[in-house]
Amino acid sequence: MIKRCLTALALVALTFSLTPEVWAQAAELPAAASAPHFDKGDTGWLMLSTLLVVLMAVPGLALFYGGLVRSKNMLSVLMQVTVTFSLAVVLWVLYGYSLAFTQGNALIGGTERLLMRGLWDPVSGVFSPAATFSKGVVVPEIAFAAFQATFAGITCCLIVGAFAERIRFAAVLLFMVLWFTFSYLPIAHMVWFWAGPDAYTHADVVPALQAQAGLIWQWGALDFAGGTVVHINAAVAGLVGAAMVGPRLGWRREAFTPHSLTLTMVGAALLWVGWFGFNAGSALEANGVAALSFMNTLVAAAAAVLSWSLGEALLKGKASMLGAASGAVAGLVAITPAAGNVGLGGALVIGLVAGPACLWGVSGLKRVLGVDDALDVFGVHGVGGIVGALLTGVFNSPALGGPSMVGDWVTLSMVPAQDYSIAAQVWVQAKAVGVTVLWSAAVSYAAFKLVQVTIGLRVCEEDERQGLDITAHGETAYHK
């Protein structure tokens, strides 16, 4: 007992003998207790959502596209999707994440996260936090960066379908580097970058924080999971590419019959499943908004399947499996910007409208444009993305069952129903669509032109007739 008391007295004496300088140094040391608290449910949901988006691209989109082309080009499409996705992820780690999601200016981010530096401290084991949409709730930034990497990857992959069956493999990769850098990253920054809710501590800081955000975010445009960033952005690039590469040999003279609608259906099913991570994961938390996004994704896709099939039956006399699969994708595209921004009624209407709108996009609009968009990237993703983006402004209204939007980030108060203007919000949505279309078109044209004058865009006629599987990759998808 005496020994314990003497030990305690010695410790007290040692404590009081520490100099102020030592105390100051100790206070500056990062303690494990100061590490941010990450909810395991939010973190787990974000990582699962990331995995689901990977499923969308490889194998989902790869099989969806692969089944639509002729058998001699099956492997070339699989290869383009797989390698493009991988290329985008690597570029994301090198510089993409930093330019998209760090503070720079209204058009592009900065260099703070080049090579992903600062995401975590390997010595202390402390991970950097990333903001969600709730005050005091954060997720590991490294998980958020991984989630967004898959968005960049699948966006680039979507473009591949427009010029399938006739483009050089090297041309695809060079174009993707240019387009990813000068179109995807700026649009992602303009639409999605902001300081996060915890930064809005007082009304006095709001103007400065808003000025630091991306241009389209400053306008107040709503894009929950990528109607502009992903679908419209990629669709415009695909349309420009299809026009500049030129039509396939025999276009409008020969029937380009899909070689395996079974594989296309498998791909569409994987896309539908993965899309729940794409949309509901964009809530960044395992909460009610994620649940709303999840249900809206289910409802809109199902409604679009029915409306596309009905439209096809009325126009052609028969509803096709390809039409049903395309309808599901159309509904998923259209609900993407609206997933957490509309009520169930809005999701239902968006899906019902998206089906016939995209059916027109792949038929009537395609004839008007006169461009061989091989796998209807613009008809589905462009038209569906525009429809979804505009209708988000309509059905976000509380008067139509929508959740409204945050009007004051200091208090997280929503815009009251009586103050919500559908016309004003639709105008903001239209401006966001317009900027995305013009920006992507300009960058895509310049990028394709640069590729054309350096290494060339198109394979030779003999290689195209033989098929890209053999001529570009030395393989065949099927052996007779």
Describe the structure.
Belongs to the ammonia transporter channel (TC 1.A.11.2) family. It is a multi-pass membrane protein. This protein has 480 residues and is mostly helical. 64% of the residues lie in helices and 2% in strands. The strands form 2 sheets. It has a two-stranded antiparallel sheet.
Classification by helices and strands: mainly alpha
Secondary-structure element order, N to C: HHHHEEHHHHHHHHHHHEEHHH
Mean pLDDT: 93
Number of separate helices: 18
Terminal CA distance reads: 90 Å
Largest sheet: 2 strands, antiparallel
Give the tally of β-strands. Answer: 4
Rounded radius of gyration (Å): 25 Å
**Helix-residue proportion:** 55-70%
Q: Which descriptor suits the 3D outline? A: globular
The low-confidence parts are: 1-33
Q: How much of the residues is beta strand, in percent?
A: under 5%
